[in-house]
Amino acid sequence: MKSLNITDGRPRVLVVDDEPDIRELIRLTLERMQVDCLEASTLKEALVLLEQQGPRGIQLCLTDMRLPDGNGMDLIYRIQRYYAQIPVAMITAHGNMSSAIEALKAGAFDFLNKPVELQTLRNLVSSAVRLDHSAEITPACDPGPELMGNSEAVEKIRTLVSRLARSLAPVHIHGESGTGKELVARMLHHRSHRCDKPFIAVNCGAIPADLMESEFFGHRKGSFTGAIQHKEGLFQAAEGGTLFLDEVADLPLDMQVKLLRAIQEKSVRPVGAQKEEYVDVRIVSATHEDLATKVEQGEFREDLYYRINVIELKVPPLREHLEDLPYLAAHFLSQMALEMGRPVPRLSETALQRLCQHRFPGNVRELENVLARAITLNESDVIEAEDIQTDGRSVPTSESVMVADDLDAICQVGLEAYMETVERQILKRALAAADFNKTAAARQLGISFRTLRYRLKKLQMD
């Protein structure tokens, strides 16, 4: 255990590895970056240094997975519990992605592959130092978008976004179309230490297959017909920031292989280039489809699935937090009235009731469109129920289970809607009781896994 040339005011990195050559390589690289290095060869030595330096004395911990008296996971758990503000990066054997993913799920900031690539190391250390100064960086940034609503579901997302903003772990956002997945991705970016760097969003289903590699990784002049100049790709454009892969399930299998390598190696090779270029981006992906099912069907690579789905963030459909609807409606009407240069209209009680009875298969986006039609066609200060025009595809529903013998209440919404409500709540309870394991939930309900999947899809709960 040793510390060399410790200078007050300079960032400090704790390096925990039982290989002296690795520690020396990292130390020499850090010294060139004006970063001090604390070295430990065992878990015990690392814990002593942590106690000596305290939570503010170390800006980053780099630890090997295997140590003589324990493993790196033990150190990650210890730091998460007692020194939560210190980011930890795991050093793993080349190709051992299972260890890296395990570390990221446990709260690790990032990971390094052996042999350690110096540029990747420099990028990681720079990100950690920026994280330590995020209190200075973030206030100067554009605050970005905000998720509207005060329901428990929305508050849960806000809390999770705040926690995930400190990490570099890939996040996969799952939710139905129109729920606001890109908005959540932008929140993640704007609340992170990367907020002053680019946020690049791409719809993976909108890029022609033959242009995909060039779009993602760039190309060199003359590399193919029509390549009349150098062009940077989306990874290079997002350097230092966040790359948002929307509808990632639409990627063809051959591109999934190349994307996996880019994420694992943190480098890309432009079309026509001889050398790879290191990139420092955070990957956030999203889809409305069930990626696990796509993996089972052979339509999505399992290794890429586990790599981008390190942390899953679910955005609930609007029908599951209808208590936010009045707040959302008021926000959209205010925004639209401002753009139209007219007074803000209010919703009548019957109009609000009609909205609350709608299932909104298009979620928040559909609500915005319904209100846009209403405010355009109504020039008065009050929007009435007849101004609310839905597409007719959905049926009225109530998320609260009614008493079975309350015939008037059942007749008011219709038997079919009532039965759907009952079935939805039964399925919710079964899934919750089984920790959202669909196989276990199907077993408890006495139905097949395929039947459960069919019911979930029919009720738009998948």
From TrEMBL:
Gene3D superfamilies recorded: 1.10.8.60, 3.40.50.2300, Homeodomain-like, P-loop containing nucleotide triphosphate hydrolases
GO biological process: phosphorelay signal transduction system; regulation of DNA-templated transcription
Entry-linked CDD domains: AAA
Domain annotation Response regulatory: ranges: 12-129
Post-translational modification 4-aspartylphosphate, affected residues: 64
Record keyword Heme present: no
InterPro entries: AAA+_ATPase (IPR003593), AAA_lid_NorR (IPR058031), CheY-like_superfamily (IPR011006), Homeodomain-like_sf (IPR009057), HTH_Fis (IPR002197), P-loop_NTPase (IPR027417), Sig_transdc_resp-reg_receiver (IPR001789), Sigma_54_int (IPR002078)
Domain Sigma-54 factor interaction: 147-376
SUPFAM superfamilies in the cross-refs: CheY-like, Homeodomain-like, P-loop containing nucleoside triphosphate hydrolases
Keywords assigned: ATP-binding, DNA-binding, Nucleotide-binding, Phosphoprotein, Transcription, Transcription regulation
Entry protein name: Type IV fimbriae expression regulatory protein PilR
Lineage: Bacteria, Pseudomonadati, Pseudomonadota, Gammaproteobacteria, Oceanospirillales
